[in-house]
Amino acid sequence: xxxxxxxxxxxxxxxxxxxxxxxxxxxxxxxxxxxxxxxxxxxxxxxxxxxxxxxxxxxxxxxxxxxxxxxxxxxxxxxxxxxxxxxxxxxxxxxxxxxxxxxxxxxxxxxxxxxxxxxxxxxxxxxxxxxxxxxxxxxxxxxxxxxxxxxxxxxxxx
Length: 158
Hints:
The chain has helices at 2-16, 80-86, 141-157; strands spanning 30-36, 45-51, 55-58, 76-77, 102-105, 115-121, 126-132. By secondary structure, the protein is α+β, with helices and mostly antiparallel strands.
């Protein structure tokens, strides 16, 4: 009888070790992305937010020096065709960008070249990046390729 109780107790303990929900920290739930230019007269900032459900634009941003506390405010929902253009970005984020929570690559907008602003959202964390439009030595090939993909998506959806 003791053996039966020992087996039952062991099974209960093993069953309790199973996680109800497992999160993959490399699964991207959403990306906020856009460009900014500090020395311009009009439309200095273009910001978008993509998730599996929707692509939205934030037309409310006027500060071209996007800081680390920027919060996306949806002002327009874009159509499904444009959403489908941006959707692949969710699966193209380089692993390098998932290692640090806030990074500036190069010197964005230091000589009026502008910058790319990216927020990568996962279940456990949010990662924010400002990337120089110029290719700089601190940008790996993967970061440069992703920056170019983001710029191409912006060109296609605006």
